[in-house]
Amino acid sequence: MLLDEFASRCWQFLPVTKKTIQNYRGAYNRNISKSLGSKELHAISKREFVEALAALTPQNYFQTLMTMRVIYREAIARELVIASPVATIKAPRIHVEPKKFLTWEEVRETNFGKYDTHIKFLALHGLRWGEAVALRESDIHHEKVHINKSMYGPTKTPAGVRQVPYFGYFKKFPSSRTAVANTLQKYGVTIHSLRKTYAYFLKTSDVHVTTAAKFMGHSNPLVTLKIYTMVRDDETDVVGQKLRLLLGQEN
Predict the structure, then answer these.
(1) Exposed end of the chain (fewer CB within 10 Å): N or C?
(2) What is the per-residue pLDDT across 17-39, written as a single tens digit (0 to 9) for each?
(3) What domains sit in the chain, N to C, each tagged with a CATH number?
């Protein structure tokens, strides 16, 4: 069976979300299909995959390698191949720089133009883009935002089904993120960074990390904790003032 043929079948039966399938398909189509898709599954060597991956950035290399490991895992399970040629290819190290994010105060004081309401809503409620697109006015009641779906179907994880306090600014979201992303790019941030804005807002409002994890839809509170341990320069100044005040009261 040709690699292209089996890959197209994989997208139909993999037990993952639609978004994950889109990521797999995109990585495969961009980086593998043209050079190796017309070859037989069992006939492609490790060296050929290494050569196909060599020109990619570390992030694309990693994503494409993981995609091919999934495809060959399924091929082995269906006895189409005996072994995976990508199993022993080493994944690259990815150095991720801490991404900048805006505080709620910075978001509040900024006019983002046409998408100002959408951006402020995301910053104050922590929804993922797909969750925000699927949200309707009927999902907001009793001063809470009820999150139970995504534009891709179910939420990213079961923990994604949640309720968060509603602070206003809701307006139906466009299905495409491009215009909002372009607006935020001017300020050096991304749509996803608005979830950090929300987490930081919770942190500076003295919301406990386990509660914040629930509000953000994190199945693992350690993910939230990574954001909670981020310290901005202005936060150091504020904490210093608070501590000096406490010491003054004690004296």
Answers:
(1) C
(2) 888 899 999 999 999 999 999 99
(3) 3-77 (1.10.150), 104-240 (1.10.443.10)
